[in-house]
Amino acid sequence: MSRLNKELGLLQGIGLLSTSLLGTGIFVVPALAATAAGQASLWAWLILIALVLPVAFTFAQLGRRFPHAGGAPHLIGRAFGARSERLIAFLFLAVLPVGLPAALNIATGFWQAVLPVGRGEALLIQLATLAAMLLLGQRPARASGLVQGLIALAIIGTVALVWWVGELPLASQPLLPPVGDTWPLIPAALGVMFWCFVGIEAFTHLGEEFRRPQRDFPLALLLGVLLAGLVYWAFSVAVLSFGVYGDEHSDAASLPRLMHLLLGDRAGWLVALVGYLACFASMNVYVQGFARLIWSLADEGKLPAPLAARNRHGVPGPALLLVVAICALCAGLAAMLQLSVDDLIRYANGNFILVYLLSMGAGVVLLRGIWRWLAAFSALLCALVLLALGIDALYALGLLAVIALLDHWRGRRGTQASLQS
Fold first, then answer.
1. For residue 8, which phi and psi values (nearest 5 degrees)?
2. pLDDT of 1 strictly over 50
3. Which CATH class is domain 10-410?
4. DSSP per-residue codes, 37-95
5. What does the alpha-carbon distance between residue 379 and residue 121 come to, in Å, rounded to a whole number?
């Protein structure tokens, strides 16, 4: 029996996932990938989609069989025990200090392209963004589904406009160019591009709120992944065709530069609005997912009981407030330390990939037949992507080790206290 209101349908699910995947990445990461691998980045997108689909199929089967607000940590706990669930839940929550500031910086960057926004004003925009997510999150889940479906249409329309006005594809830019000796550049590009397909694990936290989770959850997940992959590839073609990439400044402003080339100065506000809404949509799914994870842990007695409360709409209001407060604190710290978006993305990716890897391991334990073999293959793919991150993966691995040591120390203290009593 579901503990949360079952309000989501197929189209709302596709809207939530596709905007989560497109969100912060669609107008920035294609340029970062082009800088890393040039024209070979078009092949890298196809490779990444092929890598993600088995993972998506595995998540779809797990979510279909075990819909739960605890999401990926709950699945890992079912497979490997309660201690594993705790460790991965905190590892997943540890994305907040690096992932959310990166997303908020990208969102603010779109307004900086049209307004004289300084460091203080940028932080105010980020805090206002978090406040808007807090207000939207207090409404039923279908409200977020409707808003994000409209944002998905705006993103797809913007990419379609670029293709139409730019008369793509150009003869000078093959859709699948020969890569020659540039294949070795693809792993570096994949390390950045994986950011675009994080969101699947956050989407699993909403599985308990689908009206027909056995049918609609896996369909929404798979169709959302395919739609997002197609849009990413299409925008990458545009970035390469007009050369709006090459360094950190060019990559961050790829969409404004592209739209200025095609439509002139009048495109500035359109770019700012659509880019900001895309980032908002992605962050909203994560904030709602984090809140549901905290609520689920509290509801099961693993976190303080007040976090298990729900508001009059049946959504976890106190947990959402806690997540937004943590995000606001982390955004302020990131602004003070002036951390770069590229560094934040790579560090956050390590956490996500590790969660994916262990989720696929849970699939090997929990699934049967061909789905178990697919989960094993997906685990291997995730391990290879983790290796591709190189030294940046040490953030996630080191963090997991610290969390495990703290949990072990907490367990020993609890045992000693019980023996003494």
1. -90, 140
2. no
3. mainly alpha
4. HTTHHHHHHHHHHHHHHHHHHHHHHHHHHS--TTHHHHHHHHHH-HHHHHHHHHHHHTT
5. 43
Q: Strand pairing partners for 210?
A: 8
* Cα radius of gyration rounded to whole Å, the chain: 21
- Are 285 and 25 a contacting pair, CB within 8 Å? no
160-to-112, 129, 237, 415 alpha-carbon distances in Å: 24, 27, 12, 61
Question: Is the overall model pTM greater than 0.85, yes or no?
Answer: no
Sequence-separated contacts (24+) of 80-88 with Cβ below 8 Å: 80/358, 80/361, 80/362, 80/365, 83/407, 83/411, 84/358, 86/302, 86/407, 87/400, 87/403, 87/404, 87/407, 88/355, 88/358
Q: How far apart are CA 336 and CA 317, in angstroms?
A: 29
Q: What is the mean pLDDT of residues 350-373?
A: 90
Tokens for 380, please give them.
């291997």
Does the pLDDT of residue 287 top 60, yes or no?
yes
Rounded CA separation 109/276 (Å)? 8
Tell me the CB-side half-sphere exposure of residue 24, using CA atoms within 13 A: 28
| pLDDT of 129 strictly over 50 | yes
Tokens of 361: 């391991």
Q: Which pair of structure tokens corresponds to residue 120?
A: 């203080």
Query: What number of other Cβ atoms are within 10 A of residue 230's Cβ?
Result: 14
Task: Please compute the mean of the pLDDT values over residues 162-190 and round it to a whole number.
Answer: 83
